[in-house]
Amino acid sequence: MQPATTTPASAAKAGPKRVVLIGNPNVGKSALFMRLTGIHATISNYPGTTVAYQDGMARLHGESVEVLDTPGTYSLAGGNPAEQVAADLAELADVAVCVVDATNLERNLMLLLQVLERGLPTVVALNMADDARQKGIGIDTAALARRLGVPVVPTVAVSGEGIHELGEAIHAALRSPRGEGCEARGVEARWAAAGEIAREVQTLAHRHPTFLERLQDWSVHPLGGVGVAALLLAAMFAIVRFLGEGLIAWVFDPFFQGPYRAWVIAPLEAGLRDGSVLYHLLLGSRVPVEGSLVIDLKQSMGLLTTAPYVEFGMVLPYLLAFYLVLSVLEDVGYLPRLAVVLDRAMHQLGLHGFSVIPMLLGFGCNVPGILATRSLETKRQRFIACTLISIGVPCVALQAMIIQLVGVHGLRYVAAVYAFLAGVIFILGRLLRRLCRGGAMPELLLEIPPYRWPVPRLVLLKLWRQGKGFLLEATPLVLLGVLLMNLLLWLRWFDGIARLAGPLVRQVWGLPAEAVLPVAIGVLRKDVAAGMLLPLKLALPQLMTASVLLALTFPCIATFAVLFNELGWKDTLKSVGIMAAAAVIFGGLANLLFTALL
Predict the structure, then answer these.
(1) How far is Cα 41 from Cα 208, in angstroms, rounded to an integer?
(2) Closest C-alpha among 576, 584, 554, 586 to residue 383
(3) Lowest mean per-residue pLDDT among 19-28, 29-38, 348-357, 519-528
(4) Rounded distance, CA 243 to CA 319, Å?
(5) Cβ contacts of residue 119 below 8 Å, gap of 6+?
(6) Nearest to residue 417, comparing CAs of 232, 235, 597?
């Protein structure tokens, strides 16, 4: 996340005209934003808050227009940070595009009426028009436009239907003067007006439910929903593993072991003196492989060997596969249903069902997982969710290394590591639920969109943004982690660190003293830390214990920074204390359990 360099509310209007998208959550606003702006967009925190918005550029009749995507909100009253940011950004608009869910017209009209009361030049994007037609909902858009006094354009953001017409309406509205606004209504009067307008312009036709609609109901059923969730999550991780391993075997490994080794590694091996500082920093150390001392991309720990290979050759394939599957589930409309199904279980951890979405994001990278906790209503929920994600949810980088380390012995041992971490999350969640104060927990109020086929172009756009963001953030940290490890080995400081932490590592965790350094390096990058365990030739119980420890110990520096930003220093210190205690206690339990069973 990049902080905004200027305060949008005070920014001068001398630049491009601004189009601000406003709407309830889950009305297709982000899909519409991507239709208008493509891949060239930035995500920033609104100054003074932790609330994010998207900013991009669109071309309308040859003119560059700035497009702002506000947080989803039900009101502009400023009752919470998201509402206040949406209201502030609305004041910047040369044109406000109010995105309305055509299947829930009356409820969406509440926010639209507030926008009109502010006198903003407005265009209504009547989105999800296809779903309304399928449900037998008819809306007289001409009558609605006359009633509201602004253009109304039916759209289907995911397929692109109506986007050209919407662009024409925005272009025309940019040349309209700002209105005076209508008289502000109270909440009850606004609801009455919304109901009256909906009755005037909307018709309902009786129809029998389709198979897809029955499936939608079944996937939130108390029993059927659990079965659907179990099957989908199992399939999700199986697909991620299949795609990740396929990319490694067919794309990344052939490149690194072929052209990269021939064009980069071999010339440096021939040109640099073995044992020199530069040789050690760039290529690392020679390690024994099949009876010979060689430069190994996994184990040598050089800036041009292990650093790029771990990040691009071992982690990136799994990350791309994970975000691809997650984006499909999101665009299909399944994630809100998963939140409903798991709501009762999440209550046992002091959270509600929507918390499962930040946790799923955390399996990709803890940073967006923690950022997604902003959607939770109370400080107590955010603290519990952030702490559990930091402790018990391994990011895809660590997962890739766990599969590399433990998976060679069999997938059941990888499953055992995940099961142990799930137990840690459950136990800690129960404890935090009792210990953390913060009053009653709000009930889950969540928009559930209809199922729909994902649009490949939009899925790939999101995948591009997520992959690009990960690489921009991770690459410097991987290089820093490998460099630090190199220096520690070169200066021989590692021996002192190992002596200090040796008793804890050996007697409690059952690991050799040399495992201290990988655990410490985990603060910078978990994947680099896991890769450093390879040369230690650990037994299977030790590998499983070490994998658990890397998940339980302090998050990588990027996650730690975001944790500090989201929770503040006091709660971050509390979270760190919980992590330290969990690492000692559960790391010891993992050692005892895995050693006894294996």
Answers:
(1) 42
(2) 576
(3) 519-528
(4) 10
(5) 178, 179, 180, 181, 182
(6) 597
pLDDT tens digits, one per residue of 498-512: 677 778 888 889 988
Under DSSP, is residue 185 helix (H, G, I), strand (E, B) or coil? coil
Question: What are the pLDDT digits (tens) for 138-152?
Answer: 999 999 999 999 999
Domains of the chain: 2-207 (3.40.50.300), 224-597 (no CATH)
**Residue 69 amino acid letter:** D
What is the average pLDDT value for the chain, to the nearest integer? 83
Strands 152-154, 122-127: parallel, antiparallel or unpaired by DSSP? Answer: parallel
Burial 7-33 (b: 16+ CB within 10 A, else e): ebeeeeeeeebbbbbbbbbbbbbbbbb
d(CA 92, CA 15): 12
Q: Is 169 helix (H, G, I), strand (E, B) or coil?
A: helix
Please state whether 326 falls in left (phi above 0), alpha (psi between -120 and 50) or beta: alpha
pTM value is: 0.72
Sole residue written with tokens 């008289």 = 183
How large is the angle between the packed helices 211-218 and 224-247, nearest 10 degrees? 100
In total, the chain counts a number of residues equal to 598
